[in-house]
Every structure is written in structure tokens, then in C-alpha cells.
Amino acid sequence: MKFNPADKIQDLQYFGEFGGVNPSISDSSTYTFLHAKTMMDTFEGNAEGCYLYSRHSSPSNLNLGEALAAMEGTETANVAASGMGAITPTLMQLCNAGDHIVSSRTIYGGSYAFLKNFAPKFGITASFVDITKNEAVENAITKNTKVIYCEAVSNPLLEIADIRELSKIAKKHNLTLVVDNTFSPLSISPKLLGADIVIHSLTKFINGSSDTVGGVMCGTQDFINSLRSVIDGASMLLGPVMDSIRSASVLKNLRTLHIRIKKHSENAMYLAEKFEKDGIKMIYPGLTSHPQHELYKTMYNEEYGFGGMLAFDVGNLQKADELMELMQSRGLGYLAVSLGFYKTLFNAPGTGTSSEIPLDEQKIMGLSDGLIRFSIGLDNDINRTYIEMKKCMLELGIL
Ligand code: PLP
11 lies in which domain range? Predict the structure, then answer.
């Protein structure tokens, strides 16, 4: 039977301590033991069902991790305090001083800044390549390369990584393929396409209510155990742990993700098609004009569509700013970073979420300052939104 990530979430059943339909929240940072020997065994990772200290693991975080692992089809997962709190320990666990990472050049600005400016402090270097060119990825591999890093759908240019092909390259060179799937939960299942580790910023679509930051790394039990090792585990030792109360609330939101993603995708597709017909050069993977549209179709779980993110260029930063301010004043959304909210969010990534990337490099990757990135909301009547957005564009001479 075909893998359906939402069914995997749905199939999980939890019973709270008093028979509640939600698992009880474990509101403790530390846990008692009746016998000192069991504490020792827990330290060594040999006491099934026992908890030691919540930076290592907690029942609430394990519940959320189990659901996210089910969604991604991995053995297990480790929940983190933010998306960056999942990305940075993953890469630091996989690499030692002297190691090298081949990364997509169009990734979230924070991930880019980590690889470019921070990881070198620990002797880890990265080369940035056009991830849509498999031969560029292979050519960048050196004898020190340990990881290929990319986003399934890239931030902010919405380039699509060919995960099957990247996985073949990774296997051939004995590398770990790490895929950030933040932009395409449910739509794309990277593990099933060959990724070794799948990461999400839970802050975005998965939580969906823009009220917390969170992250997860999904992978093998061995890898997750290594992250949690009290001796040399990056998650355990760097400590980006999510609070149990937050992870319980993210788990509740996860249950409606399939309904939200379908609506985000439907609304984004509607606007992309309408504005493309109006003559705007749209960037949206659901359009046949998108360079990787056919590739996306070979990878996606069709019912979840092409996602809620779209982008278009209005020519220059001044026009982008004017349009965003006008749309906000008309209640069409918020001029804000982040994504996956019920209201549309928009920002100009050149000066916002990708400002960590130097201007000359933005140019090379095709990120111009007039580009506006949209996370399309759950608008009930998207045609009404389209009419109002179009009015704004006409008023500013964009259309
Ligand atoms: N990955 C992607 C694709 C993102 O867009 C972001 C944040 O914008 C992150 C990772 C980082 O996540 P967080 O802000 O939760 O640390």
C-alpha cells in the first residue's frame, strides 16, 4: 500500500495517565528511581521506559518524536527547541574537524550562516552548489566530504532537490544525505526517496499557529541515540531541548496538519495560476512553468499538493516594500518572516530571512531584492483574496 504520512500520524493512539485522550504532559525536569542501579542503567541507556533528565529525553518529547518519525517513515526522531536546534547538532554530530559538507546554495539564511561562518570555527567547511544540478553536487565532493545537505523545497527560491538522485550520489560516496523538509511536510517524504536524515523546523507548517519555535531530526535509532549520548551527543551536550508543555501542544496541532496543508496548497495554487495569467512571473512548483515541476510530480504525495509557499518578483525593493505594506494595511496578511500560519505571511527575503547571504552571492543564486516570498494562508474564500491582492498591485502599477 502507498505510504501516506497523515495516516501514519492518525494510526498512533495515546492514553493519558487518567485515561485521557491526550497523553499526559510530563511536567518534570528530573525523574526518581526506586533503585540506584536503575539510575546507573538509565545513564548507560539500558533501562527501557525509564527517564533520567529532560534534556536527554522526556515522555512528552518522545511522544511528539514518535509521531514525527511515523510521518517521515523513519525509525525514530529527536525533538529540539527550534529548527536550528535540530540542524546544527545534526551536522555537528555527523562531522568532525577537517570534514566537509556539500550544501545547496539556496537554503534558509540561518543554515547558510551556520555553514559559512560558524561551522568553520570547529574545522567543518562547506561548499555551496546549485542543488538542481546533480553533477555540480558530485563535482563538489572531496575526500573529506561527509554530508550532502539540502532543503526538499528551498528557501526562498522554491528550487526542488532531486532527492532520489542525491541519495544515489550520497550512497556512491558513502555520505549522509540530510534533507530539511520544512517547506513540504506531508507533500514530500524524503526518507522514502532515499534521504538518511529528515529535519523540520516545527515552527512553520507543522505547528501552524506561529506561537512557538521547535524542530526535529528524524533518522535511525542509532543516529538519534548518538545525538542523545551523555558522552558525546550533540543534542545532549549543546542542549537545545523543547519544553514538554510546548511539545504537547505541537503534537495536538500536528493532528490537523493534513487538512491545513491541503488548504495551503489549494490556495497557493489558485493565486499562482491567477497571477501567472495576469502576466506576473510566478515561482510556484505547481505551475508547469516551474523548472522542476515535473520532478516535483515524481516525488510528491499527490493529495497534499505543491505546498503553501510561492514567490514573485515585483522589480525592486521599494516596490516590494510598498506592496507588502499596502497588503498588510488591507488585512491580506502580515509583513512578517516565518511561514505556515493561518494568515498569509510575506517578506522580501533579500533583506529579511536570507539577509545572512552576502549580496553578490544572492545575485548569483537569482535572489533579487524585489522578490517577495509568500506563505499563503488558510483563507476561506481565496478568490476574494485574489481580487484584493490584485487591487493592491494595480494601485502600485505592478500589474
Ligand atoms: N529551515 C528552514 C527551511 C527555515 O525556513 C527555517 C526558519 O526560517 C529554519 C530551518 C530554522 O528554523 P527555526 O527558526 O525554527 O530555528
Answer: 5-254
